[in-house]
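Standup notes
- HV: blocked on the assembly model, inputs below
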Amino acid sequence: MNTLLLRPEDAGAIEQAGALLAAGQVVGIPTETVYGLGANALNDAAVRQIFAAKGRPADNPLIVHIADFDQIYGLVAEVPEAARRLADAYWPGPMTIILPKADCIPDAVSAGLATVGIRLPTHPVARAVIRAAGVPIAAPSANTSGRPSTTTAAHVMEDMAGKIAAVVDGGPCQVGVESTVISLAGDKPRLLRPGGISLEQLEAVLGPVEVDRAVREQIGDDVRVSAPGMKYRHYAPHAPVTAVCGDPAKGADYIAAHLTGKSGVICFDEFAGRFPGHVVRTIGRADDQAAQAHAIFDALRAFDHTDVAAIFAQCPDDTGIGLAVANRLKKAAGFHIIEV
Ligand code: AMP
Ligand code: MG
């Protein structure tokens, strides 16, 4: 399959992406979080092609993207008051709400769960493509399963060229990490995945939110989780990663003392000069977590174009969007973590 690269500024490009989706094809689309691998969420066969293109395990559910709030009503069993308040505060935006699903959601989307994740993205190209398709769009991140997520159209082409119908090039993603996944399907609100909307922001609207164990710890194969996808190895470049957490200056000292011949470093800007002779990628200053979120997946992917054999990565603390960046880095490291 020849994968088309569509530019939203070209006449007819959005309509073409919409028509491909309406016809049951898979299309890479930009969102404010990461690029998504979209298909018609109501078409079981189309959705199964997403799993095939990514090599994604069938028990890892997909998020359904809508262009306008009212589309949610056909997709979930009911919209509770708490969901409406969250939506008022943070939609359109980088937040996915899990609710009991409506019957029209194919099993492939919900991975057999009784729930479905819904998101209203803010990216104008994402919303224009969803509107042009005329259907809700199921979309996981547009990377090969297990690899770092994609935040540019070039990243998507790296993983998906030849496997999907088209990629819409909306430029680099602004947020850079995936959406926050908040479940309102149980007795209490529960954070399943930290992301672009922080835990502090959720709690400002909902009051106390439980944080799922899978956010900070590795979950064993024998443990039941709310979303099976939380168990898999994720976000990983080819070289093994060590996440270095704690005081940033001490972390830089630790890395400088432990670097061997072919190690690479992901570090905060102020420490870039500490590792001469090594491949270094900076992700923003230690106190700029938004910059770190924006840069992290590109940094992880960049090492796959080098001969680096091991990567040390400085990890932010758990405040604000730092919780999401730390979660992605710890998972990329397979929870191989050094606390300094
Ligand atoms: P991705 O954005 O590719 O990383 O994948 C979507 C993620 O959303 C999954 O890995 C789950 O963590 C989460 N998700 C989607 N649907 C559900 C659901 N019904 N229940 C719980 N989590 C979900
Ligand atoms: Mg993903």
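- HV (later): unblocked. The mean pLDDT is 95. Residues 140-141, 149 surround magnesium ion (ligand 2) (CB under 6 Å).
- Next: hand off to the docking folks.
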